[in-house]
Design brief:
By secondary structure, the protein is an alpha+beta fold. The structure holds zinc ion. Zinc ion binds next to loops.
């Protein structure tokens, strides 16, 4: 028996929805990492401002404003 481990889910960084290889409508490669999106419009939003949606990678000592 084989287990299909290929159906991991990913989080759409734009809207927060969970998508998988099968349900993802669009994908985008950014800094060597592939991001999956529930819709083309989410991918476009990410493509326009990737940093806006990847805030969790905060740099030390950097405060906005
Ligand atoms: Zn989305």
């Amino acid at each position: 028996m084989k287990r299909q481990s290929d159906e991991r889910s990913f989080k759409d960084p734009v809207c927060g929805m969970e998508v998988s290889h099968k349900t993802a409508v669009d994908q985008f490669l950014y800094q060597g990492k592939t991001y999956y999106f529930c819709a083309g419009s989410c991918r476009e939003a990410f493509e326009a401002e990737p940093e806006k949606y990847l805030r969790h990678h905060r740099q030390h000592g950097m405060k906005p404003g």
